[in-house]
Amino acid sequence: MTDKYAVSCLVRFNSGLGGAGPNDMGFGSFNLFNEPGGHAQGLIFVTLFRAFSAGTVRLAARDPRADPQIDLNMLSDQRDRQRMREGVRRLLQLAAHPAVTSISQDMGIGEVRAEAGLPRHDDLDRWLLARCGTIGHPCGSAPMGSDTDPNAVLDPDCRVRGLQGLRVADASSLPAAPRANNHLSCVMLAEHLAQRMIAPHAQTVDSLPSAGPERPST
């Protein structure tokens, strides 16, 4: 590990649980190179790319400068809890691998240093909820969708329903969370929308050919 540069890695995998489909989870790692004490430190984590739990973003006041009320509602869906239980077990198994122990002095999640030290049953769910967090890629608070979708804040061209002259093209407009970091998906969305807006005879979404069913990434 280096004490000069931020180094990160992300590996996606299929949990095979909860009907979540391919690439629904991932392992990530990065070094914490500016920690007190001058020692290079690292972090390995497990994450859900396909989360079934859904949070909310609500206005707290009429004042646009007021922070909104955000409830992440993490692990509220049992399919997320099932996969995170298994994910943490795999994470501790990974931390115990010789390839990791050979370059580290100590690895653990809080007070837990091995899979055998994890709480049991319902206590494990409470333990997970107390320690889980976002990895900084929230999305979908103003999703696009068809006219028949009651949750669609935006139409398929990212126009805000009920307002004139306003579009939203960022992570909030994604109708579903990408099974990866949001950055490239947001760039793709913005570039595609910009081309549609400046095209002299831009097609409407309804007239575009269907892309067909979602396929697993290769």
Describe this structure in words.
The protein is an alpha+beta fold and 218 residues long. It folds into two domains: 8-131, Glucose Oxidase, domain 3 (2-Layer Sandwich); 136-210, no CATH class. It is 22% helix and 13% strand. The protein has four helices and five strands; from the N terminus they run E-E-E-E-E-H-H-H-H. The chain has a three-stranded antiparallel β-sheet. It has a two-stranded antiparallel sheet with strand order 4-5. The chain is elongated and about 60 Å long.
Task: Jot down its keywords.
elongated, single chain, three-stranded antiparallel sheet, 218 residues, two-stranded antiparallel ribbon, disordered C terminus, Glucose Oxidase, domain 3, alpha+beta
Give the structure's gist in a few sentences.
With 218 residues, this protein is α+β, with helices and mostly antiparallel strands. It is 22% helix and 13% strand.
SSE order and pairing:
Elements lengths: L7 E6 L11 E8 L8 E8 L7 E3 L10 E3 L6 H18 L2 H4 L19 H11 L51 H16 L20
Antiparallel strand pairs: 1-2, 2-3, 4-5
